Amino acid sequence: MHTNSKENDNLSPASQIISALHIILRSQAVMPDVETPYSQTTSPNSNHCAIELNDQSISAIITHRQQQLDATLHDISSLETVIDKINNLHRQLTEQKEKLISSIMLHKRLTSPIWHLPTEVLSHIFFHCLPEDKYLSPVSKLAPVLLTRICRRWREVAVGTPSLWDRLDVPYDLRRKPELPFCLDIWLKRSRGRLLSLALTCCFSSTMIELRRLLQPYINQISSFSICCRVISDKFDPLFEGLTALQELTVNRPLTEQCFLLLPPTLRSFKITTLHSELKFFPSCEPVWASLTNIEIPIHHPYTILRLLQLCPNLCSLAIHLGFDRTAIFQPLVHVRIQSLHIVDDIIQYSYRDIDGSTPNPLTGLLNALSLPSLRTLEMHGVPWPHQEFKSFVTRSNCPLETVVLGAEAVMRHKQRAECIALIPSLEVVVSQSEES
What we know:
Layout: H1 2-9, H2 13-26, H3 55-109, H4 119-128, H5 152-159, E1 167-169, H6 180-189, E2 196-202, H7 205-215, E3 222-229, E4 248-251, H8 257-262, E5 269-272, H9 286-290, E6 294-299, H10 302-311, E7 317-322, E8 333-334, E9 340-345, H11 362-369, E10 370-371, E11 377-381, H12 387-397, E12 403-406, H13 414-423, E13 428-431
Parallel strand pairs: 1-2, 2-3, 3-4, 4-5, 5-6, 6-7, 7-9, 8-10, 9-11, 11-12, 12-13
């Protein structure tokens, strides 16, 4: 008896209940005998010769049977209550099972080597988990936000790694989501003074004002800034105030003179994404152009190209989208620093042909005028291959050209390729589409 008492003490309440149920259910329920001398009497017309009906005796039987039925109904109700409690107990035990399995799996994972990695190594791994996008979206299903939702240590490491938080595509719907300003501030605080790469989309004047206010504490950290402004407003200029660390700027429309004057001397890369934008050169802004090393802009007038090259003596990479389709005559120009030249003609359907019936090529005049002694990469799309002009350009420039990338419109025949290789034996020509003569 003493041993059984100790065993019962070690049982959980659920186990005690189950043990008690096992003991109870071993015994069979006693079913009452409902047979009487009158049980075989099924109708008034039956032969009752052997049975003498006694109303008093039958009434006593009915009363007794009703008492038995009431007791049975009470037992059924009680049993249903017990069954409900048993089902509830089963549900609790099932939930406990799931929790126990989860706990076991969690602690098994803790024995994995990844949980014992030094913080520096884990931070490095987290950095390589980031999407390859230039600007990161603040969504919970992607790193770095996702990394903060795995476990406490991962959150601490992720939050404490500034390199995970120095890129951000700022949501533009600040008016619809009041929690975004708080999230933006938290994100940028985690960068801990690192240089920032930010992309903004402004749909309302009030949005620009609000964004400027939110970015003010971090304005001197911004090194890469992409601004898509969908509203014409005089309040566009304040976004450029105080950008003392700015090195790369992308906009979807030309800047006003006031905006240019606000740009710092640290700026090295400038890009305009809207092809129909008309570029203007303001005399007061010439120092800004002089410091640029990378430019990608649309060009709508032939003279703009030479003016741009004159204003940008330190330019190393130039990508231009030509918005004119006539061959122009340029004054000769030598630019000693350009190493990469990317030209795209955005006028696909030429509006006219030359007198001899040939398709005009706006690139020929440019190649005839330019000398680029440092050029290593030349890429052109949307124009026919200017073979003779190219050979003259390469010979005149005496450049270390390594790669020529041609679009589908620039058909280079095998003979022409051979002539190019003869000029520069190490030249690599990449052609999207070619055809034989």
